[in-house]
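Working notes for the structural subgroup meeting. M.R. asked for a predicted model of this chain before we commit to crystallization trials. I am recording the input and output together here so anyone reviewing the notebook later can reproduce the run.

Input as submitted:
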Amino acid sequence: MDGTNKNLTRRQFIAAASAGSLAGIASKSIPAYGNVTKKAGKLAILGGEPVRKNRSWPRWPYWDPKVVDSVVETTKSRIWCRIQSKSGTVPTLEKKFAELIGAKFCVATGSGTQALHTCVEALGIGPGDEVITSPYTDPGTIASILSARALPVLADLDTESYQLDPDDVERRITESTRAIMPVHMMGQPCDMGRIMAIAKKHNLKVIEDTAQAHLSEYRGRKLGTIGDLGCFSFQSSKTIACGEGGAVVGNDEELMDKCYTVHNHGTSRRGRTEVAGPKYRMNEFEAAVLLGQWSGILERFNRRNQNAAYLTSALKDIPGIRPQKLYEGTASGSYYLYATSYLKEHFNDIERGTFLKAVAAEGVSLSPYIAQGLHREPWIDHILSRPVYKKMFSEKRLRQYREEIDCPNCDRVCREMAMIWASGPLLGSKRDMDDIINAIAKVYENRDKLSRV
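Returned structure, recorded in token form:
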């Protein structure tokens, strides 16, 4: 590599990659930045020098003295439970989070799963009812439905966005379907235009599982405010975190009042025990941790979006690495995860596991994320054998449920996923992002050597 190429800027690299892809880089028709060519040396996994060495990523979850001060102040106040004060940290968080998301109302809960179950109960969904959702999600999604003794119906995915396929959602609607629960995977929006149209057509409710998608925006609205109700998680890995914790948001005052009653062991704001409900209240310490980090939430969100755009500009031109598809109308995402598909046919049919090991040796850790979809987990055998489900659903329906449980597109996504746990790492510098790009590109350019790994 001559001196001109060695000094090429990142901006020039991105422009070059966009113009002709890394195939052009390899053929020397365009210059290359950093360690993206075969001339960069052998793969680290084969004894070469790694792209990234002795450098750490931004750590997560986030904290600073403001977070500590907020927790200390709450401790000294002796107001440790939301029912002790109408101006405590939990009621304050509810007001601030509703304002941040653009919703009229918020009810804070102890987890995202609790938020989802609160919504299912508030909407009157229960035994004999069905809710359509994704097989590619945390088990908490279906747990919220199972806890109400309803039936989670799993629809297949779009293989490029990793989100629910609206066509398959509509195919799986039955006379017992009461709601759709779209999951905004990786923190990016589902095809909410289609999903809301399907819901309206079939008179269904929509509960957005926005556990991963804080502040993400679709067609001018924040996720969580598009459906009837939206649910968030503040678990420690999320982009807004307090260890555990969750929230329900919505604009229908009567419905949100029902959510409050459900989450408060069935006791309404009027002090009357009115319905059956669990105790899902967020505690004051969780809210204190969240409020202590409030001033930097938007800055961190914007930085993740900037770094994600920078990554995509380069990675999309590496054959065999396909960044997550974003639907038209997506203005921003939380980037809880930065996701790509690894297409092995572009890497001499080398299996994903070998690719991940090779990239890791370069100092960049990618993850396969979810090993298999929920349609392949044993909970299905469990519920189909339970007397309560046999009472609630006909033998014919349960047999049909078993026969139609396959989700081949989800299986493909699970096989191809290569993602970055992004809450912390995507807060890094441009140099950090260049390390990710260069590590993946180096492995691609040396793909003919991967058979020796």
